[in-house]
Amino acid sequence: MDSVETDTDASGGVTEVWYRYDKYSENHIHAFEYPVLKHTPKGVWRDNYGKKRFVLKDGLKRFALPTKKEALESYIRRKKKQIQLLNHQLETARLCLMIANSQYEEMERSSSSALTPQDGHQDTLSALRLPQTAWD
Fold this sequence. Notes:
It is built from two helices and five strands; from the N terminus they run βββββαα. By secondary structure, it is α+β, with helices and mostly antiparallel strands.
């Protein structure tokens, strides 16, 4: 484990700082600093822009960590998990779209006479159908 990192406060005193990496702008990440207010046997109280927040010392998911290296490793794990979750959502959306298109085509085949523009109206279901995409 890396050594605890510290910073100097406005009065010149040394304070312990914990870190959390997060997106700062569209193409930048930043190590945000959170001064430690107090240690307990289970964790630390940190300053969150004027509010006290508790962070476990040994939790699997911690908001902030004692070193920039640990914070960056945590950020990488969070982004890998985010990609995994988004990939799952994308696959679910693709599957649902495939099912909806299949049901639509079946509906079109079974009731084509009811969907013809006999009274001058456009085929409503055809107007709602999504355009072909790269994964179709």
